[in-house]
Design goal:
Layout (H helix, E strand, L loop, with lengths): L10 H21 L2 H6 L8 H9 L2 H10 L15 H20 L9 E4 L3 E4 H25 L12
Helix pairs in contact: 1-5, 1-6, 3-5, 3-6, 4-5
Length: about 160
């Protein structure tokens, strides 16, 4: 079975969808007070700064690996934020990396199997959906944190 994205949505639509989620997650990061971004958690879950660092460490590096056809291991050690400003700056930089490398992947490769981070051997399009799903999952944790802190999170449908 061949996996393509064109039967459901275009390559450009998929990127627009992903970037909408990134815009919303950025607003969740912005909503956190500095101290709580790095210290607040519930039930032993990681802080939202740690979750954001994970997301920063996935999208751009993964697309770069796909474009270069290199199996690279996953690592969060390359970026160690010290402030909310650091996270937001890196978030914006990685969004540009995502755009640049995504544009280099021909649509016909989306059905090609790629062993992402040497662990996730799936079609490229499935890996991209994983990036989006993982971000939504972690953003949901951020929403819980914000509500627990008495902060109204951004509306989930406002991704622009």
């Amino acid at each position: 079975m061949t996996t393509t994205i064109s039967a459901v949505l275009s390559k450009e639509d998929l990127l627009k969808h992903w970037l909408g989620h990134r815009n919303l997650t950025r607003r969740v990061i912005e909503a956190f007070p500095e101290k709580e971004l790095f210290e607040f958690s519930i039930g032993g879950m990681r802080t939202f700064a740690q979750l954001a660092t994970e997301l920063i460490s996935i999208g751009g590096p993964a697309l770069q690996a796909i474009v270069s056809d290199e199996e690279k291991t996953y690592s969060e050690e390359a970026f160690v934020p010290r402030s909310k400003e650091d996270i937001l700056k890196k978030w914006d930089e990685e969004t540009e990396v995502i755009k640049a490398y995504y544009a280099q992947i021909p649509e016909e490769r989306f059905g090609e199997t790629f062993n992402l981070f040497g662990e996730y051997n799936f079609p490229i399009v499935d890996n991209i959906f994983y990036f989006i799903d993982n971000e939504i999952h972690h953003r949901g944790q951020g929403y819980v944190y914000l509500r627990a802190l008495g902060i109204e999170p951004p509306f989930f449908w406002e991704r622009g």
